[in-house]
């Protein structure tokens, strides 16, 4: 009997070698393409049962060109590059890595919030330009600052817990009613009330049709004129034209962004040169510990599917019956 084929598409910042070893030990034939072009993936993974992706787009068109595919494993908590409905309709499971970098991303968001509150990126820029004046920025005492966390999943809850001893108050909101494990000491508020109240807003939501451009011009207008924004989730959560307009008009004091709508951004992107924006290159999740966890858990999803017929961390709608052309 032939071995099932597992194919890595784009290999991003992480070394897949430990995952390859785990898959081969479980009986897979493994290929590493280091490729995200759909035509190349379709040609080189036509016999794949499992696709292990970084940022590759897996849409209905690609799924139709992979007749043996049964499982797509992302290398992150996010699954926004996969058409979940199309996968389910074709009997393909989608699995993610839900907890590989919770501490890393929450810590990155906290570091960004602290940097903005104390004006670090702005003061650094001024000093390098020859200005030596600590009063040029409205520096704030942490214990007088109210932090708002939108999205109380694993990362949002972890950030809230980290922030509670530092900030004057932490306020949370989650669009999913009845969110479990709400941290003690975090006040719950509606989205509109939270926007109007907080000094720092940190976003921790997946990108879906319901959350795309969640923070647009009307929402930004509700925020305090000296408020600060942190986004380490997905660039599409924010209307960036509206964000830049709010910064230009002084309706928002600053933003720290680890994610952008297009990554990497074009060289002429306004956000790269904006003096009130702190940027990092989608690096919030990175550390030696998280890298190992991402690679290992991605491969473990595939091994569990081979052993039991179901990956460890399945997301999206339940796969339907295997369609014609997708034999079991």
From TrEMBL:
<dbReference type="Pfam" id="PF02826">
    <property type="entry name" value="2-Hacid_dh_C"/>
</dbReference>
<protein>
    <submittedName>
        <fullName>Glycerate dehydrogenase</fullName>
        <ecNumber>1.1.1.29</ecNumber>
    </submittedName>
</protein>
<dbReference type="InterPro" id="IPR050418">
    <property type="entry name" value="D-iso_2-hydroxyacid_DH_PdxB"/>
</dbReference>
<feature type="domain" description="D-isomer specific 2-hydroxyacid dehydrogenase NAD-binding">
    <location>
        <begin position="110"/>
        <end position="284"/>
    </location>
</feature>
<dbReference type="InterPro" id="IPR029752">
    <property type="entry name" value="D-isomer_DH_CS1"/>
</dbReference>
<dbReference type="Pfam" id="PF00389">
    <property type="entry name" value="2-Hacid_dh"/>
</dbReference>
<comment type="similarity">
    <text>Belongs to the D-isomer specific 2-hydroxyacid dehydrogenase family.</text>
</comment>
<dbReference type="InterPro" id="IPR006140">
    <property type="entry name" value="D-isomer_DH_NAD-bd"/>
</dbReference>
<keyword id="KW-0560">Oxidoreductase</keyword>
<feature type="domain" description="D-isomer specific 2-hydroxyacid dehydrogenase catalytic">
    <location>
        <begin position="16"/>
        <end position="315"/>
    </location>
</feature>
<dbReference type="GO" id="GO:0003714">
    <property type="term" value="F:transcription corepressor activity"/>
</dbReference>
<dbReference type="GO" id="GO:0008465">
    <property type="term" value="F:hydroxypyruvate reductase (NADH) activity"/>
</dbReference>
<dbReference type="InterPro" id="IPR036291">
    <property type="entry name" value="NAD(P)-bd_dom_sf"/>
</dbReference>
<dbReference type="GO" id="GO:0051287">
    <property type="term" value="F:NAD binding"/>
</dbReference>
<dbReference type="InterPro" id="IPR029753">
    <property type="entry name" value="D-isomer_DH_CS"/>
</dbReference>
<keyword id="KW-0520">NAD</keyword>
<dbReference type="InterPro" id="IPR043322">
    <property type="entry name" value="CtBP"/>
</dbReference>
<dbReference type="InterPro" id="IPR006139">
    <property type="entry name" value="D-isomer_2_OHA_DH_cat_dom"/>
</dbReference>
